[in-house]
Design brief:
The structure holds 2 protein chains of 2 kinds. By secondary structure, chain A is α+β, with helices and mostly antiparallel strands. Chain A has a single domain (4-156), classed as Alpha-Beta Plaits. Chain A is built from 6 helices and 8 strands, in the order αβααββαββαββαβ. Chain A has helices at residues 4-7, 25-33, 40-45, 76-80, 107-111, 140-144, and strands at 9-15, 56-60, 63-67, 86-88, 95-97, 119-120, 125-126, 150-156. In chain A, strands 1-8 form a two-stranded antiparallel ribbon. Chain B folds into 2 domains: 10-100, Alpha-Beta Plaits (2-Layer Sandwich), CATH 3.30.70.20; 138-502, Alpha-Beta Barrel (TIM Barrel), CATH 3.20.20. Helices cover 29% and strands 16% of the residues of chain B. Chain B has 15 helices and 23 strands. Chain B is globular. Chain B starts with 9 loop residues before the first strand and ends in a 5-residue tail after the last strand. Classes of the chains: A alpha+beta, B alpha/beta.
């Protein structure tokens, strides 16, 4: 049974910019984790379309940072979604996207303050978005980070 | 400049069947080895730039990369070695001194490898360190000739005179001097944090004390070296102990030079010199030309800190080390750090690093022996440094007479260093020997502290196991107790110098 307190628990991946080395192994791990084979070589070389893509990478000079969904407590993307494709799981606090219900209106793309959701124009719906690797103890990007820059933050909401 | 004739040291092997073109190697190599070929749509390697640090290899997500030693190109491998021929080739091109970093790695015998330790069997029981307490706590400093006992109120005994200040460490392993400047602030943070976590000491080297490290100063041995960089009353006051650096095992008899390019704003503030100026440490201290001069500096530092902390002297192990040590004790030092020929550095002429000085094992044994003969051993603690690779080396050094050891290369290896020996290039991919902000961030000090502390924890566990096996329950019982050592394959001269018997000899 999900208690009221657990429903206000929030998990998200945070990247500490000062330790991000720009290797982008988080991206590789995301693709591998969301592939059918879960094999790093097969996921990148043979599977099509390429799976995953829940981490977006930004860099300028020595500063680099991997950005993924913040799994907000009151997500603007969920509020803006016309069809209910974007929804916040009340049990886990994860903001998840159901491609079957997505009509490609891009309202989530417009509203997200961190620019996480990206359109997939070919499929005319939202491209894959971070799902915190389902129920895994540790998201793949966090497990793959060689410098512990990506960390899993769990916090109780006020 | 003409194309170099010196062939690359390393071969970059890339398994294209496993390479997923993720470009991690291209983004990560600070030496520019891996380059993205737009036409081929694949990474290519310029092997002439590879220093063999293995950063790309360890970060390749598919293990498609391996860095291998390039095949030897000479037919001779005995006297005219590959490194001799390559060195001459480089010098014929440049006309300069060959630079090297880290410690001497020539395939000379390490005496540690010819020493074996004892264990208890039947007639003296061994001890299980998991069941019984094992004491590794060590005190560094001078002991009085005798304890004065006075009678206080009601005739209760109390110390008649204050004891000299002692440095208390929980394990006889400390981090050796590495300055902020020679290594990154994140590397300093890692070591300082680990020293605090374990209860041992780190050493500022000649780099001064960065404001971010002031919170770790109670576990810092601060150095006063020939350049006097960063030495202030506060620097001395905050420290756990003070070390006057006279010499370094990797470069006995020569000074230091931090190139101006590494003197960033932050380094300049810490060292208290202008940004971009070369930080030159002269070969000698220009105010020390005798034991009497050394005594003046030792007591100046003791006066400045109100005799509250040990003041020691670090020297390189050289031929006359035992007599020098006697002089240092008479000059009032509370500890002597001796750095052997395998001691490391951020940069030194290779010829000096590899050929000047004597092995720490022999230096240590002769200093300990001579101090005992002169009745001075209690007046000073001995710290052995230079090429300590394992807990066995630590215990052997202690049995030869050391109170504690310094480790530096081993500590950096724990942080990620792969001993590629190009610290002087300032492009350390592991974020250790560099001040480049794109590279220093690669060493997360939280990760570094955990790894360095784990190394100390692991070695301390192993030392306790070995002590238990010997049937003793305190490191103090092994200190200078050479009966616990035997030599294998050593000549009588070597055995005599080390003060040990050959393996097979009974007690």
């Amino acid at each position: 049974m999900v208690t009221a307190k657990a429903a206000r628990r929030r998990r998200r991946v945070a990247v500490r910019e000062e330790y991000c080395i720009g290797c982008r192994l988080c991206e590789v791990a995301c693709v591998t984790r969301h592939s059918r084979s879960r094999d790093v070589v097969a996921a990148h070389k043979t599977e099509s379309p390429r799976p995953g893509g829940g981490v977006r990478f930004e860099a300028a000079g020595p500063v680099s940072l991997a950005v993924s969904c913040r799994h907000c407590a009151d997500p603007l993307c969920v509020e803006a979604c016309l069809t209910g494709a974007m929804a916040r799981d009340p049990g886990t606090g994860r903001v998840v996207h159901d491609p079957a219900r997505c009509v490609g209106c891009w309202m989530c793309v417009m509203t997200c303050p961190t620019g996480v959701p990206r359109p997939d124009p070919a499929a005319h719906r939202l491209a894959f978005k971070c799902d915190l690797c389902g129920g895994d103890d540790l998201p793949a990007c966090v497990a793959a980070c060689p410098n512990a820059a990506a960390v899993l933050v769990e916090e109780d909401e006020p | 400049m003409a194309r170099t004739r010196v062939a690359p040291d390393f071969a970059v092997r890339r398994d294209t069947a496993r390479c997923i073109n993720c470009k991690a190697c291209v983004r990560l190599c600070a030496n520019g080895v891996h380059v993205w070929d737009e036409v081929a749509g694949a990474p290519v390697a310029d092997e002439s730039k590879c220093v063999g640090c293995h950063f790309c290899e360890e970060h390749c997500p598919t293990r498609a990369l391996s860095i291998e030693r390039a095949p030897a190109e000479t037919t001779s491998g005995g006297h005219w070695t590959r490194s001799a021929i390559r060195g001459i080739g480089r010098q014929a091109e440049t006309g300069g001194i060959l630079l090297g970093a880290m410690g001497n790695d020539r395939p000379q015998m390490a005496y540690f490898d010819r020493l074996v330790l004892n264990a208890a069997q039947v007639t003296n029981p061994s001890i299980d360190p998991l069941r019984e307490p094992m004491e590794l706590k060590t005190f560094i400093g001078s002991r009085p000739d005798r304890i004065e006992i006075a009678r206080g109120a009601g005739g209760r005994p109390r110390l008649g005179a204050p004891l000299p200040p002692l440095l208390e460490i929980e394990t006889p392993i400390m981090f050796s001097a590495m300055s902020y400047g020679s290594i990154s602030l994140n590397a300093c943070r890692s070591l300082a944090g680990a020293a605090g976590e374990i209860g041992t000491c780190w050493n500022t080297g000649e780099g001064g004390l960065h404001p971010d490290l002031e919170s770790c100063a109670d576990r810092a041995i601060v150095q006063v070296a020939s350049g006097r960089f960063g030495v202030t009353p506060e620097y001395l006051a905050r420290a756990a102990a003070i070390e006057i650096k006279v010499g370094q095992g990797a470069k006995p008899g020569i000074g230091g030079h931090l190139p101006g390019g590494k003197v960033t704003e932050d380094v300049s503030r810490t060292r208290r010199i202008p940004v971009g100026s070369d930080a030159i440490s002269p070969a000698p201290h220009h105010d020390i030309y005798s034991i009497e001069d050394l005594k003046q500096l030792i007591f100046a530092l003791k006066e400045a800190t109100r005799y509250s902390k040990p003041v020691g002297v670090k020297i390189a192990a050289v031929h006359n080390v035992a007599s020098i040590a006697i002089g240092i004790v008479h000059a009032g030092a509370d500890f002597i750090a001796i750095d052997g020929i395998r001691g490391g550095t951020g940069a030194a002429p290779s010829v000096i690093r590899d050929h000047v000085g004597i092995p720490i094992e022999l230096a240590l044994a002769s200093v300990d022996q001579r101090l005992r003969e002169e009745g001075l051993r209690h007046r000073v603690s001995i710290i052995a440094a230079g090429g300590i690779r394992s807990s066995a080396d630590v215990l052997k050094a202690i049995a030869l007479g050391a109170d504690a050891v310094y480790i530096a290369t081993a500590a950096l290896v724990a942080l990620g260093c792969h001993v590629c020996r190009t610290c002087y290039l300032g492009k350390c991919n592991w974020g250790i020997a560099t001040q480049d902000p794109a590279l220093t961030r690669r060493l997360n000090p939280e990760v570094g502290q955990t790894r360095a502390a784990n190394l100390l924890r692991a070695w301390s566990h192993e030392i306790k196991e070995m002590l238990g096996g010997m049937g003793v329950n305190a490191i103090e019982s092994v200190r200078g107790n050479r009966d616990h050592l035997r030599g294998v394959g050593l000549s009588q001269v070597e055995l005599d110098l080390l003060g040990i018997k050959h393996a097979g000899s009974p007690w």
